[in-house]
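hey can u run this one w/ 3-methyl-2-oxobutanoic acid bound, need the structure tokens asap thx
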Amino acid sequence: MSIHKTARKITTHVLQAMKAKNEKIAMLTAYDFSMAKLVDQAGIDVILVGDSAANVMAGYDTTLPLTLDEIIYHAKSVVRAVEKALVVVDLPFGTYQGNSKHALDSAIRIMKETGAHAVKLEGGKEVKESVIRILSAGIPVMGHLGLMPQSIHKFGTYVVRAKDEEEANQLKEDAKLLEELGCFALVLEKIPARLAEEVSQSIKIPVIGIGAGSGVDGQVLVIHDMLGLTQEFSPRFLRRYHDLASEIKGAVSAYVKDVRSHDFPNEKEQY
Ligand code: KIV
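ok here u go:
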């Protein structure tokens, strides 16, 4: 039987056992109670309350405006729904960089106020002190390297990262460092598949990819993208499992038609 099936709850240790047994880890984002309940019931291993909430829930162009209070609101809603999956919450931009005491305060707020199981943050050596301090409080940390959306104004574009040797070497060093510091897992976003596979083989902690090929230990997608709710976003790495946008628009226009034509509510739909 699979490790996912035998585990009562998915913990950071379960994820590490999955990597050791070459069992792939499935991770998706969720930001609200109803969606998180469905995702958990469908057998996901990890739910990420991602700062992509800034894009898909709040409509911002970047993840930068999302606040700690906002992610806490989303995470509380998700945690109330989840019975089995590990819930990881993104530390928003400006809540952990450059000041490790501030980083610890932010992570403690997330853990205390939401009941989530771990935090995720973007960066390598530049966030070392913050990672150390958060871990020192017993809070599990997931790293995130490659395309880091919180640094979009430094990168300038959302293109594939670490294609040149210098950036690839830096990424490999950062991945090793995050493992040595004690991170329990690492997200690699939008980097060449061969590099991601090399990183995954060089460290013991699970590597979860998004746009990083199949040679890693698991995959993550933004739920709105894989369900086809975000129509305008279609990078090569995205597989759409549904066309919910069309289904929702179809259902809403049928409702509008029924209301306008006096068809809804009918005799049986009233008291
Ligand atoms: O915020 C998010 O959704 C993420 C994933 C893309 C990994 O960080």
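The mean pLDDT is 98. anyway lmk if its weird
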